[in-house]
Amino acid sequence: MLHKKLITICLIATAMVVIIMGGLLYRTDSLVVIPFSSSSTIAINTYHEEGAVFSKASCQRTDKGITFDYTLSNAFPEPFAAIYIRDTITAQHFFDATSYDMLEVKLKATKGTRIPITFRVSKKLVIGNDSVDVIPYVLVVNHSGADTTYKLRLSNFKVASWWLRYYKLPGTDFEKPDLAHVGDFVIGSCQALGPDIPDSITISDLRFAHSNRTLLIVIGSILALLVSAGVYINLLRKKQVNSLQIAYTPLPLSDTQNNEFGKIADFIAKNYPNAELSLTDVQNGVGINGKAISRLIKENLQISFTDYLNQLRITEVKRLLKETKLPISDIAYKVGYNNISHFNRVFKGITGKTPKAFREEEV
Predict the structure, then answer these.
(1) Interval 256-274: pLDDT, tens
(2) What domains sit in the chain, N to C, each tagged with a CATH number?
C-alpha cells in the first residue's frame, strides 16, 4: 500500500507545481489606451459624411473617459458618425499589440444597440489607381444599454465590409492584421438607430489584453488528468482494502448479522482451499438452501458467492506473496486454483496487477 501513498503524494505535488506555474504564467498586463491622464498624447476627434448636410457629432473628455454624442442625418441612405482615438506623440507612432489576443472595451450607449468597434492597421497598399495607408478591422458588439465591458477576441475582427466594397475587394485577400502597427481606434454610430435620434456613447476603458484562454485550458486539462488518476488509485485502494476485510479464517458468530450467515462464512473460510468447492458443497455443509446462501452473502457483503470465494483466496495469495518465497504456481494451487491462467486473470481483476508485479512492489 506504501507505493500507492507515494503515487498519491506525487500527484498532489504535481498538481501544486502546475497551479504555481499557471499562476506565474497567467498574464494580467495590458496596453491601456483609455483612461489617460491630462498629459497624455492621446487625441480624440469625430468625423461624418461629407457635404453641405451631414450628421451631427461631437466628443469630449470627462472624468469617466470619453463621451461621443451624435445624431444621424436623414439626408443620406447610410448616414454615419464616429469618434476616432489616436496617439499624436509622433506621426509614425503605433500601438504594438503583438503580444495580446483581445481588445477590452467598456462602454455605455443611451440608445444605440449595435456599436461597431474598429482598429486601423497601418499598411501601404496600391489598389488599382488608389494608394491606401490603413486597413480597418471591425467587430460589431450587441449593446444592452448597461455599462458593460466587452472582451473582444482580435481574431474575430474582420476587414470592414464598406472598405472592401469601396475598393471592390474580396475579404479573402487579407491576412491577419499586423498588430505591431495599430494606428488608431474608431467607435462608430449605431446604424440600426436611424436618423434624427440623438445618442450618446461613453467609453471609459479601452485596452489590449490577454485572454489566458489557452493557458487555462492546458492547466485545467492537466489538473483533470491528475484528479482522475487520484480517484482511480483511491478507488483501487479502497477495493483492495475491502477485499482484505473479508477474513479467510473462521468468522466469530458475534461479527455476523445472523447465525445462518455465520455458519456460511465459517464453512467457506475453512474450505476455500478446496479447488472443487461449489455452492452445492456449501449447501450440503451448512444445511441451508443454495439460493438462500447467495442471498445472505449478497445482503451482507454486496458480492456474489463466486466473488466472495475469489476474494478469500486472493487475500490469502497476497499474504503468501508478501510473507513467503513460495513459487506463484504453488501459492495458486495452495488456495484452490488448479488453472494458472484463470488464477492470473482473477488476481489481476481484483488487484489491478499480475501476481509477479504485486510481489515485486510489496517486497
Answers:
(1) 446 888 899 999 999 999 9
(2) 31-211 (2.60.120.430), 246-362 (1.10.10.60)
Residue linked to cell 497551479: 19
Mean pLDDT of 58-66: 84
Identity of the residue numbered 50: E
Mean pLDDT of 15-21: 87
pTM metric for this prediction: 0.56
- Please answer whether residues 136 and 160 qualify as being in contact, where contact means their C-beta atoms are separated by less than 8 angstroms: yes
Task: Give the DSSP letter string of 147-172.
Answer: -EEEEEEGGG-EE-HHHHHHHT--GG
Give the alpha-carbon dihedral of 75, 80, 81, 85, to 10 degrees.
Answer: -160
Evaluated on CA atoms 164, 170, 173, 174, the torsion sign reads: positive
Q: Residue 194 is which amino acid? A: G
User: Across-strand partners of 184?
Assistant: 86, 120
**Other residues' Cβ atoms within 10 Å of the Cβ of residue 240:** 18
Arithmetic mean of pLDDT, 87-93? 62
Burial 92-106 (b: 16+ CB within 10 A, else e): eebbebeebbbbbbb
Q: In what order do the strands lie in the sheet with 182-188?
A: 42-48, 81-87, 182-188, 114-127, 130-142, 158-159
Phi, psi dihedrals of residue 257, rounded to the nearest 5°: -75, -30
| Start-to-end C-alpha separation, the chain | 11
